[in-house]
Design a protein that fits this description.
116 residues, mainly beta, 6-stranded antiparallel β-sheet, 9 strands
């Protein structure tokens, strides 16, 4: 069993052309002996965004704090604390933070997908 404060896990910053102001943390993954899923926590700074992308695996997102938007189906959808999102495999998506506070969300992916 692992019990931790997510912020004690090392953060990996993503701040380049396709991504801006993003920090990702693997909080539970293969290094912890999790054979089926990986849990990650992302923080997106105000004005930041993930890259617009797609991949074969599904993932699930739960918004912890902040407000933002997720791109899917050729449009932007608002996301707020408590919002849950299912992103099927091969669906183009992107998350952005147009707000003034950090957007923090949990993202679950299946084992075998790149953890970060």
């Amino acid at each position: 069993m692992k019990i931790c404060d997510y912020s004690t896990n090392p953060g990996i910053p993503f701040d380049n052309g396709p991504a801006r102001g993003v920090v990702g943390r693997v909080v539970i993954g293969k290094a912890d002996g999790a054979p089926n899923f990986c849990m990650r926590v992302f923080e997106i700074a105000p004005g930041g965004h993930t890259p617009r992308h797609r991949h074969a695996w599904e993932h699930e997102i739960f918004v912890h704090s902040g407000r933002g938007e997720i791109f899917s189906d050729d449009r932007w959808h608002p996301i707020n604390p408590g919002t849950a999102v299912f992103v099927p495999g091969d669906v183009e998506h992107q998350i952005r933070n147009p707000g003034t506070k950090a957007l923090v969300f949990v993202c679950l992916i299946p084992a075998g997908a790149p953890e970060l």
